[in-house]
Hints:
Elements: E1 13-17, H1 22-31, E2 37-39, H2 51-61, E3 65-68, H3 76-81, H4 83-103, E4 108-112, H5 141-161, E5 165-170, E6 172-174, H6 187-201, E7 205-209, E8 215-220, H7 221-234, E9 241-243, E10 248-250, H8 251-262, E11 267-271, E12 280-281, H9 286-290, H10 299-311
Parallel strand pairs: 1-2, 1-3, 3-4, 4-5, 5-9, 6-8, 7-11, 8-12
Antiparallel strand pairs: 8-10
Helix pairs in contact: 1-7, 2-4, 4-5, 6-8, 8-10
The chain binds guanosine-5'-diphosphate.
Amino acid sequence: MTPSPVFNLSGKKVWVAGHRGMVGGALVRRLAEEGCDLVTVGRDQVDLVRQSAVEAWLASEKPDCIFLAAAKVGGIQANNTRPAEFLYENMMIEANIIHAAHQVGVKKLVFLGSTCIYPKMAPQPIPEHALLTGPLEPTNEWYAIAKIAGIKLCQAYRRQYGCDFIAAQPTNLYGPGDNYDLESSHVLPALLRKAHEAKLSGAAELVVWGSGSPRREFLHVDDLADAVVHLAKVYSDEEHVNVGSGSEITIKELAELVCATVGFQGSLRFDVSKPDGTPRKLSDVSKLHSLGWNQARPLQVGLTQTYQSAFG
Ligand code: GDP
């Protein structure tokens, strides 16, 4: 049963912070269906790291609702080599927006986190209550600590001031606006690009990093946006909510699916000099399902759409 709505977006002034990013862009597309008055602002006008700039923007705009998708993001290499930037900028963005949202009386705020907030050795699938039960994966702890602070800010402002601020934790995302740079991208866009180029060049094989045995969960960013908008409407509580597809696939299976989607008929070669990373990272989505959202498109469908829009 779908819970009755606690927040109606129709006619509301809604700010998507981070609208130029992959998640923010998907939220803008999805919110266009909600009949709200959507506002966005570029970094050239408001630097979200500067408290005075954020306060002035929110005091002048006074939105009813904020989707906080702005963040400094990057892959394992960037996170590992620029820890100060990842920790400082993400903490500042969240603290500035959440505090100023409270000051101007924002009625609903949805903070977007990441599954890297969970302990490295969390049980699988990872339930929300695994947060802060063990050490983090060291390569992304800077980003993770900042994201955990964002969740805690939402909880603290709810407890102390009664603010309706909630947090959602997306799994690995793919889709429009993704990064296809082979050095810094995640696996799904990397394999799509590699398979496409291998097909065009008539290559005999495609190189997959690692052993192919790690398992990952993938969610199309438009499904994430749909789930997050749903949560904005129906959810109002302290605990964050995992947002994922609930199913996982090995990297080898993913590579095979990508090759079939792209039409590359060569063979796969596994480069075991590259790291496997975490063996498994699957979110427990039972809470999301109990809140009435279970719409993740099958990976095959999302892959085909993504391939056609990126390379078609
Ligand atoms: P993670 O989910 O944080 O580990 O990040 P990635 O999406 O970058 O990598 C997931 C898994 O895919 C790892 O086991 C990688 O070694 C593997 N993988 C296989 N081929 C590639 C590739 O071409 N690029 C990337 N980024 N990962 C790959």
